[in-house]
Amino acid sequence: MQDVKFRKAGREMKKEADNNKSKIFRLITALVQCGLLGFGGGNALIPVLYRKAVEEYHLISKDDFEEAVVVASITPGALPVEIAAGIGRITGGDLGMLCAAAAISLPGCLLVLFFTALLSSFGSQLALQINYLSVGVTAYILYVLGCYVAQTLENSRADRIQSHWEKGKPSGRVSFSPSCVLIITAVFLVTCGDQIYHIFGIQGDPLLGISTVNVMAVAFFLIFWLREDYRLSKVIPAVLVAFFYCLCVGGMDLFSDTALELLLALLMLVMALWGLVADLKQNHMRLNTSILPALRECAVAFVFMAVFALPALFTYEETPAYLFRGALSSILSFWGGDAYLAVAGGMFVTSGLILYSDFYSNLVPVANAVPGSILCKILTGTGYFLGYRSDGNIVTGLLTGLCGFGCAVAMSCITYSVGAYFYEQLENAAIFSQLKKSTRPIISGLLFTVGLGLIYNCIQIGTGAGIPSWFPALLCLFCLAGEILFVKKFRYRPLLMVLVSAGISLLFCNLASL
């Protein structure tokens, strides 16, 4: 009888282990696919991650995904890599966190290593063909962005229907939530200025044109300060502070780099913290002092970074200095992919570690042409050039590049883990409940601006290739229309949609260049 119990327990343990292996395999598969589709920046990848992790592979719930987005948005590092780390952390713990972050980063980093090694032989023609392919991939990304926004609006309508039902009201014809529509519209209007000016060739600077990080800063400030308390005595000062801050950081730089901008930023921080403390007191909440789980996750991430750094230590003597600068640049990357180029330029180019021509003439064009997180690609490519220039050996460059890849992944996991620790202590507060409700509409508003940015990128591809600038953008929209019709008539087939659109764009862009 005892033997039967042991055998049954053994079978259950084996079944659980097999399930965990299957989960990790599905996690890696989903995130590698996201990494291959990572054009358009971190915000553009949020809908792709949502579709793969929640809808297709059913790795985590919708609420867990929204939580991962919130944590990644309030911590420095590569946004899509941190969201992937959050998905992996929920799916498979420490191992899942590292596997997910590495899986979404690996395609872009490997492509950077491959193309930077080939660039000296094939010149800019190789990057041009990658850009032609990206036009078709952009069409698929625009489709996913549109689905994400549509689902956000539909979710707001479903919430209103449920609210009407709970109150005993008829819910037959309920429109979208006005607050959801207002947030989406407001975020789009304050961020789209630069893209609209670029697309239509308008000279000058838009009044607002605010960056993503500043939008998130204003949104978090308003949520933390107001806490669903919309009395005029709280709303009026909050709106005034937010408005003048937007003028300071807007495209026209009316009060930028002045004492007013610093004063308003500090005021927003103090008011937000005041609101957070008041909310914690009201709900009688305290921080849990046990930080051991977060420390364990950070230690595992450091081991991951050490494993990738070890081979480089034997081939490139400046590896420790490179790792330190890479880790520091990750911590300072609060401002998105484009701003990270300035941070990395200061860390590596201005300091003399890497040649100006290697960074801006070779690495940056390749990093912009291939999918993936800018932070991960730049760190990997910088490592390649540092190692390669040290002894002229491609192997040394590859090893140092992989060291940069390990550093980028590990630091994204570490910053996410620390952010998740504090978030989990406070998630039951009213502020964070409101934050979770508002995050998706805020992201949806940003995605409209991202979509315009992707269209403008197609225009730039046409200009740089010497073909009519409108042609790649029009071709992209044509592919998008074809994908919408395909899904309506048949069903959603992402791989087929991407391959067909990329093939069409590659063919017709090359024909146009002739």
Description:
The protein is mainly alpha-helical and 514 residues long. It has 19 helices and no strands. Helix 5 packs antiparallel against helix 17. The protein starts with a helix and ends with a helix. The model has no long low-confidence stretch (mean pLDDT 83).
Q: What is the element layout, followed by pairings?
A:
Elements: H1 2-36, H2 42-56, H3 62-73, H4 79-122, H5 124-166, H6 178-191, H7 193-199, H8 212-226, H9 232-249, H10 259-282, H11 292-315, H12 319-331, H13 336-349, H14 356-369, H15 374-391, H16 394-426, H17 430-465, H18 470-489, H19 494-513
Helix pairs in contact: 1-2, 1-4, 2-4, 2-5, 3-4, 3-17, 4-5, 4-14, 4-15, 4-16, 5-17, 5-18, 5-19, 6-17, 7-17, 8-9, 8-10, 8-17, 9-10, 11-16, 12-13, 12-16, 13-15, 14-15, 15-16, 17-18, 18-19
Keywords:
514 residues, mainly alpha, 19 helices
Strand proportion, as a percent range, falls in under 5%
Give start-end ranges of low-pLDDT stretches: none
- Give the beta-strand count: 0
SSE pattern, N- to C-terminal:
HHHHHHHHHHHHHHHHHHH
Discrete helix count: 19
| Average of pLDDT | 83
Which structural class should the secondary elements be placed in?
mainly alpha
Radius of gyration: 24 Å
Largest sheet: none
Helix content: over 70%
Quote the distance from N terminus to C terminus.
80 Å
Shape field: globular
